[in-house]
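Researcher: Let's do a round of design. I'm pasting the structure tokens now; please hold your answer until I've finished.
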């Protein structure tokens, strides 16, 4: 990555202090255009699924999705946080439609995850402009130093997870992750975060990408449906999905599709 070692050092310092850090202009507009087409294609393919729920179960047989999360610009960022031996654990589009996008209630990601140890980093890729009006991600800086709190079911308001953290959150401390398409926000598995409903006329789409070092064991089914070995040494604690093969007419068509045939 073109980020200098001084800039990398300062970003790691911010991440350690705050539990999050933002990288601007990571992916180019052409690729973001393809990502947009992919989201629309997934929605046509799965009309029964809310667009906030286009999750990792659809990823295994999707060459474009695997190509996207394997992009060197994203892996170079992940490498700063989890080291050189990298696998994908999960990835999920949360596309909040205009006027009716559901909120994500306050939570800590790692409280949901079958990982041992909890060494994992999330890259949240902005597909759209993401603002307070359309329900951008909000984080509580420094809350990554807390242990995991219990979660409780929450169904009073329709929401993406159906759960929330079972302790009070001081919302006055929360910071809005205002992002442009192609920007990436990186966050820690313990940080308290969420997002509000989208009542604006603009869609708010982002892709969560969860990268683990290959030394982190997935303590659930093996191979986990969205586990792909992506860089460095595959290690021996997990089994991984084979790279999907692109079939014209079956899969989303994209620029590099020929190299996935
Ligand atoms: O996209 C959102 O609104 C929430 C994202 C989130 O909870 C996450 O990245 O873990």
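Researcher: That's everything. Go ahead.
Model: Designed sequence:
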């Amino acid at each position: 990555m073109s980020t200098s070692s001084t800039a990398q050092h300062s970003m790691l310092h911010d991440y350690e202090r705050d539990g999050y850090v933002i990288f601007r202009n990571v992916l180019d507009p052409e690729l973001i255009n393809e990502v947009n087409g992919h989201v629309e294609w997934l929605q046509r393919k799965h009309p029964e699924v809310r667009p906030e729920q286009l999750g990792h179960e659809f990823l295994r047989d999707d060459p474009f999705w695997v190509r996207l999360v394997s992009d060197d610009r994203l892996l170079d960022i992940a490498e700063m946080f989890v080291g050189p031996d990298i696998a994908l654990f999960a990835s999920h589009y949360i596309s909040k439609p205009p006027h009716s996008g559901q909120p994500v209630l306050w939570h800590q990601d790692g409280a949901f995850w079958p990982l041992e140890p909890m060494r994992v980093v999330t890259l949240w890729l902005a597909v759209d402009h993401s603002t307070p009006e359309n329900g951008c991600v909000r984080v509580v800086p420094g809350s990554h130093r807390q242990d995991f709190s219990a979660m409780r079911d929450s169904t009073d308001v329709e929401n993406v997870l159906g759960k929330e953290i079972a302790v009070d959150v001081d919302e006055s401390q929360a910071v809005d992750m205002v992002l442009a398409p192609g920007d990436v926000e990186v966050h820690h598995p313990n940080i308290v975060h969420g997002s509000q409903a989208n009542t604006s006329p603009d869609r708010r789409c982002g892709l969560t990408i969860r990268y683990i070092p290959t030394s982190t064991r997935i303590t659930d089914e093996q191979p986990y449906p969205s586990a792909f070995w992506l860089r460095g040494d595959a290690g021996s604690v997990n089994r991984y999905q084979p790279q999907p093969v692109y079939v014209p007419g079956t899969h989303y068509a994209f620029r590099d599709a020929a190299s996935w045939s």
